[in-house]
Sequence to fold (227 residues):
Amino acid sequence: KNQVEQSPQSLIILEGKNCTLQCNYTVSPFSNLRWYKQDTGRGPVSLTIMTFSENTKSNGRYTATLDADTKQSSLHITASQLSDSASYICVVSDRGSTLGRLYFGRGTQLTVWP
Amino acid sequence: EADIYQTPRYLVIGTGKKITLECSQTMGHDKMYWYQQDPGMELHLIHYSYGVNSTEKGDLSSESTVSRIRTEHFPLTLESARPSHTSQYLCASSTQGANQPQHFGDGTRLSIL
Fold:
């Protein structure tokens, strides 16, 4: 069964600190992995996409990594800000259909305290 | 910011009522989607469309229906709302291509009494 598992479920850090969120998947065949940020009461917004050949990609203070062999991805947030408080969702797409079916994780709820 | 809009943002309504959730996008995207999201749970695809006059059911069984008469508009209808329909409904759109992101609206929070 294709699945996407995220850890931790929730995380509280102090402003200015770094943190790393994990995503493990069993989706096969694999097309890409995307990290979304979802603020409370808003829709998800794409942060970054990782394809099979990519190991690391940065978007400002966000750095995503992908290990396609172990089927693991991480999202590292540097120098956290209060505005980083949100749910971070890992989404994996397969190559098995024209739709490019998406498999969603349940998200990691990040809270940044001042 | 993506130009995709959902109305209403919040709706509290009694059992048995007919409900239509609106979703419009101004980006000219061919693909549109409806998801259901409960707190702490993953998004579940309930309907999608490849283009005008194309609609398909998603992975999660839903008693709702959708229509795609115009490219920019993808409304979702519940003929007779029940408490089990209480959830957040997210609409999204994307262009063609395997690696294109889905752009999400801010959702409709639906509560059926």
